[in-house]
Structure formats: structure tokens, C-alpha cells
Amino acid sequence: MRAFVVGISGLVGEALARQLCEDSRVTEVRAFARRSLIWEHPKLNLKIIDFEDLLSHSEFLEGDHIFCCLGTTMRKAKTEAAFQKIEKDYVLRLARMAAMKGIKGFTYVSSRGAKLESPFFYFRVKAEIEAELSRTPFQILRIYQPGILLGKRKEFRPLEKLIELFFKLPLGFQSRATPVSSLVASMMDEAFDPEAFGKKVISTFLQNPS
Question: Over the stretch 94-110, which tens digit does the pLDDT of each residue have?
Fold first, then answer.
């Protein structure tokens, strides 16, 4: 498999790309990023781009499966318009480019709680993306709806750290939290499945990491 990762500097994207690079079934991992990484690998082919100019990099978008882990937070984006540009516009632009090039598989990391009728802007945007992706002609489409992600971040997020501390306690946190290791493992299993076909929304695959 030739894999393509977008959002490689984030928590999920980096963990996924590292695992893909170490997997013997993967011959190349290509990626778009907004900045250089602090790690390298012989299989990793990274291209630094301005996502506003995404269409001009179409020739680099090659592979058997696209993994889209691109995202931001309202705190970073500062405005709803900026958030929607990164979370929705860039993702859908990428998906359409990939579909036009005949790439067979596309995996998108959405969020638990994504609903068009949600009172929260974040979840409405995620649901809008899911709906648009469902109309793309990919042979394989996987949409993941993880809970709060548990893993080592470069930035400190107090709420997620609190949940991580209590993850093993019987307080119901398991229903709201997703270990990144479990998410990445499922994403790879689905992409490598020789019988995978069609659309699947995946929201229940939580495992306490060993």
C-alpha cells in the first residue's frame, strides 16, 4: 500500500504516520504539512504546502488510501470562519481532489457528537463534512467518530488530561475517551482489510491501552 496522510503534525496524524512507516505492508507514506517535522523516516515523503494553495499540489497527491486527520480547535482558529476553513473547506477540497484522481480509499477522523442538528458549532461542522464525504465516489470510505483523544500532545489541554488521569476508574469516562493507539490501530486495520468496501462510520472501538 501507498498511504497518504494529511494532518501529520497533529496527535492522530503523527501516531498514524509513524505506524504506517514501520509497517512492512506500506511501501511509501506521503504527506502534506504546513511545517517541517521533528522526525524523519526513509518511507516518508513530506511536502510542505500552504493549504490555501492545495489545488496546485495535485500532482503530489498519490497513493492507494488517504488518511485525513486535519483539524484545529476554536481556540487556535479564533473565529468560526477560520475554523470552518481548516476543518471543512480544506478537508472537502482534499477529498474532491483525491476522488478526481481515482484514489480508492479515504479515511476521515471526525468526532463523536457530530450531528447536523447539534447546538454546538463544532459538531455541526463535523456532521456537514461527513455528509459531503458520503457523496464522494470512493470505493472505501471510513469515517471515525472518536471521543476525547488520549495521548501525548505537544500542547496542554486540561480537560483531556483530567479524563486521561481518571480513564481507568469506573466513572463512565470510557464512553467519552478514545486512546489514540486504539484509533490508529482501527484505521490501519480497516484500510488494509482486503474485503473492505463502501462506507462505514466507526464510533465504538475503544480499548484501554496496555
Answer: 999 999 999 999 999 99
